[in-house]
User: What shape does this take?
Amino acid sequence: MPVQWFLAYRIRILSHSWIVFGGIFLLSLAQGGCGIAGGVLATLISKSVERFIVDSRPQEAHATIS
Assistant: This one.
């Protein structure tokens, strides 16, 4: 995100347009937020899948001696 903000700043300096700067800045914020949310969701999903795999293993049958 900081690189995108720097480039947005440079574009604002060269074009003298706050609208272009604001658009690039907001898109970079959205991209960063989606990246963080995706990482959190991936972590949660992988933990639940791992738990499902461990819980769905067949149980060993124990022989009882009578």
In short: The longest helix spans residues 18-55. The chain has a mean pLDDT of 85. DSSP finds two helices and no strands in the chain.
